[in-house]
Amino acid sequence: MSVFSDPHMFRRRAAGLCLIAAPLLYIVGVVVDPNLRQGGTDEIVGIYGRYPDQVSVSASLLHWSWVLMVPGIIGMVHLIRRRGVVLGHVAGGLALLGVVNFSALMLGDFFYSRLESALPPAQGAKLAEEALADPGARFAFQIPGFLGLLGLFLLGLALAYAGRAPWWAPFAMLAGIFGTPAFPIGTVVGGLLYLAGSGVIGLRMLRMSDAEWAGEEPPHLAVAGASTGNRAATR
Predict the structure, then answer these.
(1) Where are the transmembrane segments (predicted)?
(2) The model's pTM
(3) Assign residue 84 a region: left if phi > 0, alpha if psi is -120 to 50, beta otherwise?
(4) How does pLDDT run along the chain (235 residues), one tens digit per residue?
């Protein structure tokens, strides 16, 4: 049976790979952002208008970093079965809404870039800021986005409570997401934290058996089978 026709293998691998790929794209997207190295200087005004191609690459990578979290989040919720189920469902729903909204917010970078290049930089930046300060943008996109990060953190805790992730993973993910844009130390440390927290969950998904993914095999049996060198039953 091919990977694409096997529902357990395909979904398990897709979720695991997305949890590894998402932080990588996020890190690269942040590094490419022309605003990263300015450190709050006056040069920040109009910088998106000066580097439209760089902004396009950065915003696109950041968009896909949030999109790829969707299969990963669904996979995380899927693994919470016996303990923390209610928390997992609520937190997973919040997390999904959040990453979708953050993905949509990446369009703002394109508007900043075009407005700052078509108008005087300060005027273009002000117009873009006014658009994003609109109550609709704030309550429909920005606030749900940050609530989604809270949901992602709680989902990681629920996953750890269910015995499917190390306790430090959700802390590393949240610290990494917020820390990576703080160049240069935060970019390095935060990027590594995000990759470690999300990546360890993704690797666990990739390494587990299809039977464990499907709930047909308790986690402790899979570990025991691996330690004795015996292949765990997949059906």
Answers:
(1) 61-80, 87-107, 139-162, 174-196
(2) 0.87
(3) left
(4) 677 888 889 999 999 999 999 999 999 999 999 988 665 445 678 899 999 999 999 999 999 999 999 999 999 999 999 899 999 999 999 999 999 999 999 999 999 999 999 899 899 889 999 999 999 999 999 999 999 999 999 999 999 999 999 999 999 999 999 999 998 899 999 999 999 999 999 999 999 999 999 887 666 544 444 344 444 333 3
213 CB-side CA count, 13 A: 25
Distance CA 158, CA 161 (A): 5
- For residue 219, count CB atoms less than 10 angstroms from its CB and return exposed for 0-12, middle for 13-18, buried for 19 or more: middle
Q: How far apart are CA 118 and CA 111, in angstroms?
A: 10
CA–CA dist 47, 51 (Å, integer): 6
- Calculate Rg over the CA atoms of the chain: 20
Among 21, 48, 20, 53, CA closest to 34: 48
Candidates 188, 196, 192, 187; CA nearest to 169 is 196
**Domain extent listing, the chain:** 7-227
